[in-house]
Amino acid sequence: MNKKKIGLVMGIYFFICLIAITWPAISYVNFIYPLVLGMPFLMFWFVLWNLIIVIGLVITYMWEYSKEESR
Amino acid sequence: MKDWMVVTAITSAYLLMVLVIGIKARRKETGTSLDSYIADGRSIGLFVLFFIMGAEIFSAFAFLGGPGWTYSKGAPGLYIIGYLGLGLIPLWVLGPKTARLGKKYGYLTQAELVSARFQSKGLSALMAIISVGAFIPYLTIQIKGAGFLVDASTGGNIPFWLGSLIAFIVVAVYVFTSGLRGIGWTNVVQGIVMIAVAWIIGLAIPYKFYGGVTNMFHQIAAQAPDYLTLPGHHHAMSFAAFSSALVVSVIGLSMWPHIFSKSYSANSEKTLKKTIILYPLYGYILIPIFFVGFAGILVFAGHPLKQSDTVLVKLIERANFSPWLIGILLSGALAAAMSTGANLAHTAASVIVRDFYVKLFKTKLKERSLVMMTRILVLTISLLSYLLALYSPSSLVSLLLIAYGGVVQFFPIIVAAFFWRRVTKAGAYAGLISGTLVMVYYSFFAPPLFDIHAGILGLIVNVVVLFVVSLLTQPMPETHINQFIEDSKIPLDQIKPEEIVKAMQ
User: Fold this and answer.
1) Which residue among B239, B250, B290 places its CB closest to the CB of A23?
2) Model confidence over B277-330: pLDDT tens digits?
3) Axis crossing angle, helix B311-318 with helix B282-299, rounded to the nearest 10
4) How large is the C-alpha radius of gyration of chain B?
5) CB pair distance less than 8 Å for B214 and A35
6) Does B217 reach chain A within 8 Å, measured CB to CB?
7) Which are the contacts of B377, defined by CB distance < 8 A and separation ≥ 6?
8) What ipTM is given for this predicted complex?
9) CA of B247, closest CA in chain A: separation in Å?
10) Three-class DSSP labels, B410-451
11) A46·B78 Cβ contact <8 A
12) Chain B residues lying within 8 Å of A50, measured CB to CB
């Protein structure tokens, strides 16, 4: 049962990530300034969400295997 | 010593090193069992697997096509960073299931899994044909890229045909001798060289021409701002085209047979998942490469390049770097082409042997002969792609588009195989064929509807047809389905040795 819960929560998490980097969300961040880390804002937006995806994957991993060990 | 000789000497030393590492990776059992030659005995660890998976991204296309895109179109190139982040996530769910069934029944390829689920050899052969059709143009692009790089950085002293020939002889030799093990260790070395090279070029070029990355973007924003936001320069890519290209790549990436089949090679489920966690980091290696493309915008503003894919090479030429640096840069870019090429040739050969030949002709050949056949096919496919690279028509990019769209059509079948008991063989056939045809139609014979990527249009038809036809046909035998789905739920480390079934006999 718990596996399903993890799947659902993280599924929604990654779906939000996909929404964030496709239309219509990207039309709201479609500008150049401010430059962040030297990059135009739109480019930074993609770099940022890439990091959020990695964090999500780490959470999924830890969540899945912590349940297994406590069982 | 002339400059081009220095470049050639450094590159030759590099090629020699890769060759030695690739051949040394060979183990005693490599030549005798397919399991070992194709999946390295299902024992690959995180470190090597990460670099093998990365080879797909760091192809010649990334080093030449990536900057080419940002140079000619601008921001639309960002979709590549987007799909790298999400692209392997489907494997989080599908990969472990695939690995479990693979270990128990001896599967080594994507089509073997599908043909077992649908009890159909024809489906396996059909998938094999689509995959190989996708691989050859892709491999051809790598070879062309390699030849082109050598030609440009030696000032034409080593011609295109010779440069690509040498690079691919090296690849064919180590794949021939060491199979996946050779690919693994050479990909690690090549991966590290590529990452270093990407960052060196990516920071050195903006510094040389603009005095830094921030300055570069300030200047582009002042003189040519349309490059830095969507839809890009000259409306290169609408929001719909951008988003659907991103989605089709997210779905398609894990469906490439050479990516999907690496699920079998991992030594544990944890290794596979850790690889998926690290994978989005490849997106960060693309950032400096994109900087190079952006750098070209103002540098070549007066005289636009005829071929935008040459932007990286042209900038390096113009920057007057020392020949030592150019030699190292060339090695890195060659590494990108070669590591992908090795992977493609290896997977294409194993797909032909396992999914097509063995399935259709029920061969009783010894395993040793099958390994030999796979090896000979590695050479044949490399040679064929080399010839295509020499005499290819200019429409290779459109061929690759078909390839990608075709590979995406595997997705519904594979998901349904694991999660929908009611799916039938007829449904799988109908979905795959109709989806592929729709994709081909909107790629070549009609403009895509609403600017949406043809692969997505095919995918929608594919899913609907798969669903409807499955419901209209007789369900598949329940015991078979239950067996398949139950087996896919038993974790790898809980499969007992006595339960392992030898599928080949």
Assistant:
1) B239
2) 888 888 888 899 899 999 999 988 888 877 777 788 888 878 888 888 888 877
3) 60
4) 23
5) yes
6) yes
7) B348, B349, B352, B353
8) 0.89
9) 8
10) HHHHHHHHHHCCCCCHHHHHHHHHHHHHHHHHHHHHCCCHHH
11) yes
12) 81-82, 84-85, 280, 283-284
Predicted confidence at residue B503, as pLDDT, reads: 46
Q: Does B283 touch chain A (CB under 8 A)?
A: yes
Residue A10 has pLDDT above 80, yes or no: yes
Q: Which residues of chain B have pLDDT under 70?
A: 1, 27-32, 34, 37-39, 41, 56-57, 362-365, 392-402, 497-499, 501-505
Q: What are the chain B neighbours of A65 within 8 Å (beta carbons)?
A: 270
Q: Check residue B504 and give its pLDDT.
A: 42
Instruction: Identify the DSSP state of B353.
Output: I
**Is the CB of B93 inside 8 Å of chain A's CB atoms?**
yes
Q: Which residue, chain included where needed, has tokens 């470049």?
A: B7
Chain B residues in contact with A61 (beta carbon < 8 A): 273-274, 277
DSSP code per residue over B110-149: HHHHHHHHHT-HHHHHHHHHHHHHHHHHHHHHHHHHHHHH
Q: Would an 8 Å CB–CB cutoff place A59 in contact with chain B?
A: no
Alpha carbons B17 and B96: distance in angstroms, whole number: 35
pLDDT of residue B21: 79
Would an 8 Å CB–CB cutoff place A31 in contact with chain B?
A: yes
State the amino acid at position B368 in one-letter form.
R
Position B397 scores a pLDDT of: 56
Q: Residue B467 corresponds to which tokens in the numbers above?
A: 């669903």
